[in-house]
Amino acid sequence: MRIENKVQEQYPRSIGGWLILYLGLIIISTALYVWGLIREIPIIYNTFEYTNGYELFISLVLLMGTFIKLITSIIILMMFVSKKSSAVKIIILLELFCILIRLLGIGNITMYNNFPSQYFVSVLFIAISLAWIIYFKKSNRVKETFMI
Hints:
Largest sheet: none
Strand content: under 5%
Helix content: over 70%
Oligomer: single chain
Distance between the termini: 24 Å
Mean pLDDT: 80
Shape: elongated
Structural class: mainly alpha
Order of helices and strands: HHHHHH
Number of strands: 0
């Protein structure tokens, strides 16, 4: 029994539990980031012509945030599947970055009093990102899977 435990400790656990849910979310998020970039480019083009500098700035920041999240999601997806230990740190950084982008979005929503339901959705996604950060920092499953 002791030998079996020592052998088991040397190898990472398989991806399971909540990690499978997060893997699915990363796959879906990557597809949504691609869709978001495709959708936002014409909007920003129109923003150049018809809006003030602040709205253009916010639109460009949100576009760059989406692009950065897309690239980071692809990197995380590759690292996650290969169970690299540094994947956890990058996941936490991505979630913190997502919180920052959501806070900028909330600022934009509240400034123009548009779509109050988007405000609550942003707050919900911030709470979900915080929950994932706590999970990746505290979970034994994450430590055993990524050999932290």
